[in-house]
């Protein structure tokens, strides 16, 4: 296919038809779907090895993986196949649980997951170029070609890569290639998340993740314990505070409810990374370029999770990029189909989650206690079990906001909100 296109349209001088910046899960999914139609796809990745270092809790919904066509992940990638629900803890220790009978989510090893996606993409011909740090992306309107400038980190030399279409999937690092023309996600939309792999924790329930909300501990987010076995877990925290890492240490060592469970524990690994909350870019296509995944802010404002939602958008980006090559049209008019399609599938979800996050961020600890009280007294957890979905949260959030008990609660907590 590539040879035929090259000879007909004279694109022989290009290094690839589609080039992707960043070999995270979203870049690899975009590459995989772009290459399926037989066009030449390359990925430029600054790291030496794909997926290293890891920066993710790896909690992925079973439904989401199925949507991405990844329901048959190799067993060695999955650390826990049994997540059925979550236990929510208020600042003072009130608890409610949401649990289903079937597994709702897997905990995966992100390094192995990213490497698995790379292998899948390589099987359909994607060319991975590591140690290449992209600096710039320029679209030439006259010859309708995209030139990517990158630094070859091994040779310590600047080089160029030309193609028809580029997909930026460079993750949550603040800098995206300079001249790409896309908006940078504002610093205010980021939280820094810290996470430890911890062994020898007592009283873990392998079926349940634990969530702790508290303005003192983690304003703007929460603390999580995600079990990977009966005695080990990923324990993480993000917040608006600069001292989030101290907050995580404080949680493990001093939190009145959990500290005893960590007495014999040991921290095996530490990670940190940027979590994007409400950073969605409105415009994600231009002449010869698309932007996707964390780089486009396509994460859930409720949890910061972005593998499934970004994966859906990245898949669309890959398909539209390859369609554009086959149609010989890399104009912004053609590529806007990507904007239209991901927005059709995800925008109302993102908006509902953003609104929910906005509301939760305004709850003082006193108001949070009232919310927990109401949920527990009125069995609201049952409604969440009935309508909830880890990735598509709009339905349950709408149902909650229309529930008479929640409307009454809203009126009661109004004086307790923080602005
Ligand atoms: C602590 C923490 C826990 C999380 N837990 C979860 C979770 O449980 N579930 C979930 O769904 N999400 C989670 N997330 C979010 C999730 O990690 C991201 O949404 C996901 O990694 C986005 O994938 P991506 O491919 O867009 O970006 P990334 O995974 O960040 O990949 C981007 C790639 O681009 C490369 N790159 C960047 N700049 C350049 C450049 N200039 N040139 C070349 N290469 C470049 C990077 O090296 C990287 O390999 C978590 C995030 C954090 C920080």
Structural class: alpha/beta
The CATH class of the largest domain: Alpha Beta
Query: At CATH's second level, what is the architecture of the largest domain?
Result: 3-Layer(bba) Sandwich
Number of domains: 3
The number of distinct helices, counting runs of at least 4 residues, comes to: 11
**And the CATH topology of the largest domain?**
FAD/NAD(P)-binding domain
State the end-to-end distance.
57 Å
Order of secondary-structure elements? HEHEEHEEEEHEEEEEEEEEHEEEHHHHHH
Heteromolecules bound: flavin-adenine dinucleotide
CATH homologous group name of the largest domain: FAD/NAD(P)-binding domain
Radius of gyration: 22 Å
- Which outline best applies? globular
Biggest sheet character: 7 strands, mixed
Number of E strands: 19
Mean pLDDT: 92
- What helical percentage do the residues reach? 25-40%
Neighbour order of strands in the largest sheet: 6-5-14-15-16-13-17
Keywords, separated by commas or semicolons:
419 residues, 6-stranded mixed sheet, single chain, binds flavin-adenine dinucleotide, FAD/NAD(P)-binding domain, D-Amino Acid Oxidase, Chain A, domain 2, alpha/beta
Question: Summarize this, please?
Answer:
The chain is of the alpha/beta class and 419 residues long. It has three domains: 200 residues, FAD/NAD(P)-binding domain, CATH 3.50.50.60; 127 residues, D-Amino Acid Oxidase, Chain A, domain 2; 55 residues, no CATH class. It contains eleven helices and 19 strands.
